[in-house]
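User: My collaborator sent over this chain with a note saying "see what the structure looks like." That's all I know about it. Can you take a look?
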Amino acid sequence: MSLHPWIFIGLFFIASAALPSVAIGANWLLGPKRPNSVKHEPYECGVEMVGSPWAQFRAQWYVFALVYVVFDVEVVFLFPWAYAYNSLGLFALFEVFVFIALLLVALWYVVRKDALEWS
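Assistant: Without extra context I'll predict from the sequence alone. Here is the result:
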């Protein structure tokens, strides 16, 4: 008797959802529950907090992070191309120039909008 190949994929998804759920549930059921005041004290730096933990950050920091991620992904795409450069043809070289040109246009746009100005 042969099983359809998709059955194994379904079983994999069921197992990948069930195993962590069982582990978290077992921890919740079997774990110790001894609340006390020491567990509610600060532990990272040992100093009581001053002010609210909900501080507002400037949106410009998020723009910096997004620009970094864009150019980090660029590097991830360029490394395999550079590794296989000798076995690629002239068309691959043209594709990389188009890719880099698009990224330069994006960088020009970001610079033109003064998104990289730190104030």
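A starting point for your reply to your collaborator: The radius of gyration is 26 Å.
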